Structures are given as C-alpha cells and as structure tokens.
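Input record (one chain):
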Amino acid sequence: MPAHALARARRHDNWRLTGLAIALAALVGWNLPDWIGPDASAPTALYGVMTSRTAAASGDSIATHFPICSSGLRYTCVIDGDTFWLRGQKIRVADIDTPEVSSPRCAAELQLGRRATDRMQQLLNAGPFALEPADRAEDRYGRKLFRVTRGGESLGNALVGEGLAVWYGNGRPDWC
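The corresponding structure, as predicted from the sequence alone:
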C-alpha cells in the first residue's frame, strides 16, 4: 500500500476513534448521576429530567421503575406503603401513615401493610410524579420527607381512599 494511502487510512481510523470517544463521553456524562447516586446534601438532586410534555406541564418530573426492596443495597425501590428509596435517598411519604410490614403487631396488619406496599409500588410506577417538600426536611430516622404527587394530587390520597393508609397526624390506628 502506498504511503499516502496508508496515511489517509490512519486519519480515517483516527476520526472513527474520535467519534467513538465523543459518543462514549456523552453516554457516561448523561448516565453518571444515576451510576454514582445523587448528592445527599442536595434534595433537589432527587428531581429527574422531564419525561414528557404532560409531565412538564403538570410539574411531574420523576419517572423510574420501582421494584419492591429486598435485602442488600437499596437504590430505587419500595420498602412499604409510606417509605421508598429513590436514587439512593430514603424517602418517607410525609402526608400518610400505613400499616407496618417490618414489625407488624398482628397478621392483619402485616397483610394490610403488604397490600399498601404493593399499591404504592403501582402508584409510583404508573407514571411521572413530583416530590413536594413537607413542613420539615427529615424525620427522626433521617428519612427525607416529601409529599408525593401526580398532577398536583397526593398519591397518598389513593391509599387513604382504599383503606390502606390514614392521613399523617390523625393518630395511629389499630390495624389489628
């Protein structure tokens, strides 16, 4: 192969490598926040990218898949009817209280707590939602407190309406 043809082939390969490097850098830059987790000191890091025109118009900006939490590392999953992990932050739904699943007082509370957990998972997975600050930033367990809304309506309202939760501050019901 003549020298000038070899030089042209090398330049062409360099352009391909440069393009590949740019594409890889863009991919890493776009996904890096999800890979390393949010800045724990900035609650606004919890707010995601707008996913649709409807989400942008309503203010709902968080859309991701929520499995039920299992043992091990928890990053984005549902713990129970009023607590979930979102991108490494533990969130407590500020306006409701649901039956316990980790330390229920009876079998009926455990069963109702599991139903509340499943329902919260369904609600979170149903589409974009927003986190609205509560009257204080954290509870005594260090969980971030937010009201979870879709289209301005509390997702907790659905659980209360279905008998799976009570409004927070109305006393602790006897789920048994």
